[in-house]
Structure formats: structure tokens, C-alpha cells
Amino acid sequence: MEQFFQQLTNGLAIGGIYALIALGYTLVYGVLKLINFAHGDLFTIGAFLGLSLLTAFSLTDKLGFAMGVGALVLMIVCLVGIIGILLDQAAYKPLRTSPRLSAVVSALGMSIVFSNAIMLVFGPNPQVYPHGILPTSVLHIFGLPFPVKRLLLLVTSVVLMAALYFFIQKTTIGAAIRAAAIDQDAARLMGINVNLVIMLIFFIGPALGGAAGVMVGLYYGQIKWTMGWLYGLKAFTAAILGGIGNIPGAMVGGLLLGVIESLGSAYISMAWKDAITFVVLILILIVRPTGLLGERVAEKI
Amino acid sequence: MKKILFLIAALSIIAAGTALAADTVKIGLTAPITGSWAAEGQDMKQICELLADQVNADGGLLGKEVEVVVADDGGNEQTAALAAQRLATKGIVAVVGTYGSSVTEASQGIYNAAKIPQIANGSTAVRLTEKGLKYFFRTSPRDDEQGRVAAKTLMGMGYKKIAILHDNTTYAKGLAEETKALLDKEPVELVFFDALTPGEQDYTTILTTLKTKNAEVVFFTGYYPEAGLMLRQKKEMGFDVPFVGGDATNNPDLVKIAGKDAAEGFYFISPPVPQDLPSKEAKDFLAAYTKKYGAAPGSIWAVLSGDGFRVMVEAIKQTNSTDPNKIADYLHTGMKDFPGLTGTISFNEKGDRVGDVYRVYKVDAEGGFILQ
């Protein structure tokens, strides 16, 4: 039983990361019906920029742990958000009226451009975050060891997701985003500036991805220029699992994917981990083609 | 008149072109210049270029300059096959490389069909030389040799419950299976035998499973990025089982990733690290390398590419030709105890290097690799 809970928390920790990245896919898809394949690389950019800023300003030395990490995440959120907007302006906006496939190909191209740019700027070797920034103490909850930093990781991702959820559901701007997601033309007729909404989407999605990148760097220590691909793929799967275009769906999908991976590899087979995960995905999609929380929309891809 | 002038000009350009092309002896190098093993690949490139400079300073080869033609295999099979096809058309007389076994396997057939002698430098999977390819050699040892040393080391540590973890690559799986076959004959219990997915970052699931299986020692046959992450995560979990690594964990980045306190006490089996190379050739070479690039090469695998290069140069010199059959014959039978950077080099009829090279290392509190 202890092993089960251990594996469950292992899965939830990585699932929180998947969920944060999945939000970026789902937000963009919700409004533009575009799979932003460059999103995984925006996540990597977040991780690398985070490392540069952290070491350049020695933030945690000057500001202490909480303030330092907070400032770092804030800076990355802004920077990667701006990169997201530029990405949209450069690669997707000119293709807004083209067939949907053109934008998808453009996204794949941008993914390659970004990952190679990271390699050329930061070098091909794995980079390492400074050790000992996150607390190393271990809590014991019901006799089960629970590292504090894992708790931090989970809490941060849940808080970020909850904040996004309330922003979309409860604010006027959120209502505008939802309206643009349902029908862009009608939204325009209602006086909503759809271009601004799209810009906002391309700020928030990449910003969350960038924050996930910093969190991964701080938590696992090692970052590589290729890592966006694997995380991007997993997060994309998570978004599909939960129902793409649906924000709570991305969160549930991410956490669920982490847990399936962890329990699947613990109790069935480690080498077959990804195969097990995708079998589960296929089974869920057979029963619910729109994903777990996806609504039935007449025309998706 | 104009036409004739043009013809003459065109012809002279072609002539100049071919003259330039014939001016050098070209030796290819395929290495992972990019990709997850780029740290190794870039060292390989620097080493071969340094050695080529040295050969040229000593008067070149067959009265010509030696030129290293580098191709990036990206550390993956598809790129390696493309790189091999490209290199094969560039007039190279021999090729050095590459690192990963599965990557080498993708290029082997292409070079062999093109009759270009190939000398791999990091590919230790047994089956690479079991195919009877005439033009394939390697300066690195084989996994069955490493498996023997690994089994002996694990038995020598006196633990009874052993776990083996690989990463499903040709190399790591081969080594894991070799070691398992040897341990099955011994009075120990193999409590775990499975693979992780390389390139991920969270290995806590695997570590938790290892803990519940009560493994007393873990033998990981994969590469250094994953090994470093696992050492770090196992320390954070408070799980203090000793880890033993295969030779692909022999890279200074391991300590950087894991952190010194988590890496301390990690054992690995490997050919000697560059700094422990005993011969005069090795010392001279390391001095020259450090002088040119500011630091010693990171791992032995890159130095083994240098040995591959030197062996090919020697074979061309001794046979006084670039004929692939003569070079291959010389390497199979003629070369005896050639003073390589990593010890004496001879090859058997399969193209495998003869002699044992494996040592056991332990990481100390300062992150240094200490020969046991």
C-alpha cells in the first residue's frame, strides 16, 4: 500500500507538469483550432532562460528563496509570453485565412527552428540548475515520506491552473476568450477585439509553458535542448485525453496521464510504459471520442 | 574564339578542381556533433583534427596532406545512415566512428558495401562484429568483456539481491543481458530486470520500485544523463542503495547533473579515463590537446576515436596505399601491438580489439573518478 501511494505521488508530480504544458495546447486549440507544435519548445526556452536569469542575477542569493524563485517565474512568464506573441505574429497570423494544415506545418517548422536555436545559443550539452535552491526537507504524512519540493511543485501547478480557470470563467476578458472560442465572427459582431484575444491566448499559453520549464529545471536540475519534444508530446496527449479545447480537461488529462504512467510502469512493465499509456489513451478515445471532459462540438479538425 | 576561350577556362577550372581533390588523403569521421551525446562528438572532432594537424606537420601521408571530413550523425540512426551515404560519395579512404552501437549499426552496411574501412570508437554491442563484415573494426572493447567485468565486480561486492536496469538501446540492453546471463549462474538473486525510457527526467517511479524489491545493489547499463538524474533523485528520496554503472556513465557531466554529494560512492566500469592513460603517446597527446583546446577530453570514447584515426593512418602508411582490401588485411593480420593512446592495439579476425581494457572506478566526495 505504501508503494501504491508513493507511486501515486510520483505520478501526480510529473502529471502536474504535463497539465501545465497541456493548458498551452488546449488554449490555442480552443480559440484557433490550431495545434501549436512549437509549444514544447517554448517550454524548453522557459527552462533555459530561467537558468540564464537565475545565474546572471543570482536571484535566490539576493532575494532569498521564496522571493527569488517568485521573481524568476514572473520574469520567465513575461519573457516567454512575449516570445509566444511574436511566434504568433511571425508564423501563424499570416496564415490565419489559409487552410488549417498550413498553420500546422508552420508550427512544426517553428518547433524545429526553436529547438535548434536553443542548441546553437546554449550548446548541445545538458545544462544543470544550481543545486540546493529548493528545500530538501522531507515531510512525513501518515508515515509516508513526501519531499517538500514535490509538494511545492504540485501546489504551484494547481494554483496556476486554478488561477487560469477563474480568469477564463469569472472575468470579462475570460468571457471574451470563451466567446472567441465559440464563434470568432459572432464575437467580432459583439464588439470583441478578436485579434487582441488571440494575442492574449498566445501570451498566457506560452507563459504557463515557460513557468513549467523553470519548475522542471528547479525540480529535476537537468535541462536539455531536446526535452521539449518529449514533454510536448506527453502534454499534447494529456490535452487529447482530457478533451482538447477544454481547460479543466487539460488539468485532469495531465494529472491522469502522470498517474497512469507511474502506476503502469510500477505494476505492469517499465519498458512498456509509453505503450501502456497510449493503449489507455486509445481505449478512452474509443469510449469517449471527445476526450474525458470534451464537449461534443460539431466541427473539430 | 570566344567559345574556345570559354572552353579552356572551363577545362582549367575542372582540372584545378580535380587537382585539389587529389591533393589530400581524406579520412571520414562520423560523430554525434549534435544530439544528446554532442559533448562526446565535439571532443571526437577536435581530437581527430588535432591528430590530422600533427600528421600533416610530420610530412603528411603518402606525400599528401590528411584531411578529416566530418559528418554529424546526430546520435541517431536515421541521420547516421544519411551521413554515411553522403560521406561514401566524398572520396574518403577510411572512416572513423561512431559512438552509440545502434547508430553504428545503421551505417555499417553502407560503408561495407562501399568498401570503406570503418573503425568504430564507442560501439561495444557484441553483434556488430559478429556479422562477418570485412571492413569493420573497432577500438572500443565488447559488451561481453564488459559484462564479465561487471558480473565479477558485482559478485565481489558481496550483495545477494541484484537489480539490473537498462534503457532499451542496442548497447545498454546487450550489456544488461550479458551480465544477467553470467549472474544467473551465480548464487545471487536477480530481483529486478527492466528498462527505463531515456530522455525523461522523472525516474522516481523506477527508484520506488527498486526500493520495494529490496535491491541491495543496482547495475545501470545506460548513459550518463539518466544515471546522473537517478543518483540525484535517489538521494532526495533517502534511498541509499549503491549504484554501479556501465561504461556509458563515464562522463564528467554525470557529477554535474547529480551533484557531488549524490554522485559520491557511485561505481562504474570503464576503460581508463583519459587522465589515467599510462603510455607516453597518451601523455604527449593529452598535453597537446590541453594546450590547443584548454581542457582535457571529457571521456575515453573520444580518445578512442583518436586511436581509430591513428590506426587508419598507420595502416595507410604501412601498406603504402589507400586500397581498402590492403588496409583491411593489414589491420586483421599485420598490425601487432601498435602503440595506441589507450594501450597497445591489435585486431582479431572479426575486427575486434584484442586485450582487456576495463577498470573499476568510484566517484569520490569531490566528484573525481578514482581508479579502484
UniProtKB/TrEMBL annotation, chain A:
<dbReference type="Pfam" id="PF02653">
    <property type="entry name" value="BPD_transp_2"/>
</dbReference>
<dbReference type="GO" id="GO:0042941">
    <property type="term" value="P:D-alanine transmembrane transport"/>
</dbReference>
<keyword id="KW-0812">Transmembrane</keyword>
<comment type="similarity">
    <text>Belongs to the binding-protein-dependent transport system permease family. LivHM subfamily.</text>
</comment>
<feature type="transmembrane region" description="Helical">
    <location>
        <begin position="266"/>
        <end position="287"/>
    </location>
</feature>
<feature type="transmembrane region" description="Helical">
    <location>
        <begin position="99"/>
        <end position="122"/>
    </location>
</feature>
<keyword id="KW-0813">Transport</keyword>
<feature type="transmembrane region" description="Helical">
    <location>
        <begin position="196"/>
        <end position="221"/>
    </location>
</feature>
<feature type="transmembrane region" description="Helical">
    <location>
        <begin position="65"/>
        <end position="87"/>
    </location>
</feature>
<dbReference type="GO" id="GO:0015808">
    <property type="term" value="P:L-alanine transport"/>
</dbReference>
<dbReference type="GO" id="GO:0005886">
    <property type="term" value="C:plasma membrane"/>
</dbReference>
<dbReference type="InterPro" id="IPR001851">
    <property type="entry name" value="ABC_transp_permease"/>
</dbReference>
<keyword id="KW-0997">Cell inner membrane</keyword>
<dbReference type="GO" id="GO:0015188">
    <property type="term" value="F:L-isoleucine transmembrane transporter activity"/>
</dbReference>
<dbReference type="GO" id="GO:0015190">
    <property type="term" value="F:L-leucine transmembrane transporter activity"/>
</dbReference>
<keyword id="KW-0472">Membrane</keyword>
<feature type="transmembrane region" description="Helical">
    <location>
        <begin position="151"/>
        <end position="168"/>
    </location>
</feature>
<feature type="transmembrane region" description="Helical">
    <location>
        <begin position="12"/>
        <end position="35"/>
    </location>
</feature>
<protein>
    <submittedName>
        <fullName>Inner-membrane translocator</fullName>
    </submittedName>
</protein>
<dbReference type="InterPro" id="IPR052157">
    <property type="entry name" value="BCAA_transport_permease"/>
</dbReference>
<feature type="transmembrane region" description="Helical">
    <location>
        <begin position="233"/>
        <end position="260"/>
    </location>
</feature>
<keyword id="KW-1133">Transmembrane helix</keyword>
Automatic annotation (TrEMBL), chain B:
<keyword id="KW-0675">Receptor</keyword>
<dbReference type="InterPro" id="IPR028081">
    <property type="entry name" value="Leu-bd"/>
</dbReference>
<dbReference type="InterPro" id="IPR028082">
    <property type="entry name" value="Peripla_BP_I"/>
</dbReference>
<feature type="domain" description="Leucine-binding protein">
    <location>
        <begin position="24"/>
        <end position="367"/>
    </location>
</feature>
<dbReference type="Pfam" id="PF13458">
    <property type="entry name" value="Peripla_BP_6"/>
</dbReference>
<keyword id="KW-0732">Signal</keyword>
<protein>
    <submittedName>
        <fullName>Extracellular ligand-binding receptor</fullName>
    </submittedName>
</protein>
<feature type="signal peptide">
    <location>
        <begin position="1"/>
        <end position="21"/>
    </location>
</feature>
<comment type="similarity">
    <text>Belongs to the leucine-binding protein family.</text>
</comment>
